[in-house]
Amino acid sequence: MRFTSEQRLDDGVLERGFTLGEIPGILWTPGSASAPAPLILLGHPGGLHTMYPRLVARARHSAAEGFAAATIELPGSGDRPRSAAAEQARADLRRALEAGEPVDDEIVDRLVLPLVDKAVPEWRAALDALLSLPEIGGPVGYAGGVIAIGIRLAVVEPRICAAGLFAGSFVPRTMFEEARQVTIPLLVLLQWDDEGNDRQLALDLFDAFGSKEKTLHANMGGHTGVPQFEGDDGNRFFARHLK
Amino acid sequence: MRFTSEQRLDDGVLERGFTLGEIPGILWTPGSASAPAPLILLGHPGGLHTMYPRLVARARHSAAEGFAAATIELPGSGDRPRSAAAEQARADLRRALEAGEPVDDEIVDRLVLPLVDKAVPEWRAALDALLSLPEIGGPVGYAGGVIAIGIRLAVVEPRICAAGLFAGSFVPRTMFEEARQVTIPLLVLLQWDDEGNDRQLALDLFDAFGSKEKTLHANMGGHTGVPQFEGDDGNRFFARHLK
């Protein structure tokens, strides 16, 4: 991991850009941390530059509660090389959505499964690097989308102790079996009136999770309208499980 | 309203028993209130004596946030006179549940609709009396079950500004039309693995509510296993809307 930029935000949070091999990422650490801070990995749908305003808002909110936060670019997003197969799957998905057709499982599989297969080892490599920094301690949480990445990480990465998952994206049916293997505490966010999202699939997925402690928060406001108080709820969820 | 008992709990909360005509009730007020306290009506399934430990715990939790809390006995519960029709409906319900049969809509209607018709005017009369006390100010919230009572109150009682509803009891299908007329902010609690509860009906009901701000919290733990952190979430919900 190589730091490429550093700035102190007005609330004292230290924001550092980094690269991990070819993968760009951002790390935020609280201004006033005395002990190593627990870490929250911020999941997102790809495109660090576009997502930056929302990511930095989430990171500052987490930092106010004493958490460090970090994110990396997804494979095939932002400035990272595109994959022809992923671009084709994305185009097929867009076409189905624009035609108002139900999205074929096969398109979701082509789009999401390779993404999960590529992204999860990258997140784990980032975790290795981040946890080697003296200012970051365990335990670790994962927060946000892509929910399929969160599911796989929750199953394969024992350092992740709790996850706040945004149920706002497509999940291959084959991943329900993985969802059943998840045992860490979960807070699942669902935008009830998110028209582009399959609500029943999200509810089925919540049902499938094997975790004994799992909570679903459903709200109104559309895909991007998650109410502000959910940020506080997320902080309290992670405070219960990471502190 | 006539006060019948008074005791100071160890956290300073003042607990007063009262009667309103033939209806017994309990009022809890915060120990350290300087201004009139906003009021939360504590809904419950009936039987003040049996429910007391849970009700006093909820009231103390609310009082710690500066809320007064009050409850009254339901018609046909506790020491109040039984209705033959309600007892018959209750027996029919029990028989269906014990036989593992689906509960007929007609039984639910016979059990719940007369209860709502009788209980709601009583709650409103209690509200008149409670709001005439100098230590209690508006606005008012309703929290708990019976959810059908909460729905009717939310529609007909303009002094109720927010409701935290426990979706753990039977709701007559005809009340879905009333649910559509609810416009106040709602926090709906659902115990996901409550085997005696119709989960799909609870989700349909959440969908039906007309409120622009509505939040669903679903948890594990069975009918009586609502996690403790939901008490804090409820306090914050009411603090957002009643303060």
UniProtKB/TrEMBL annotation, chains A, B:
Keywords carried by this UniProt record: Hydrolase
InterPro entries: AB_hydrolase_fold
SUPFAM superfamilies xref list: alpha/beta-Hydrolases (SSF53474)
Domain of life: Bacteria
Recorded GO MF terms: hydrolase activity
Record protein name field: Dienelactone hydrolase
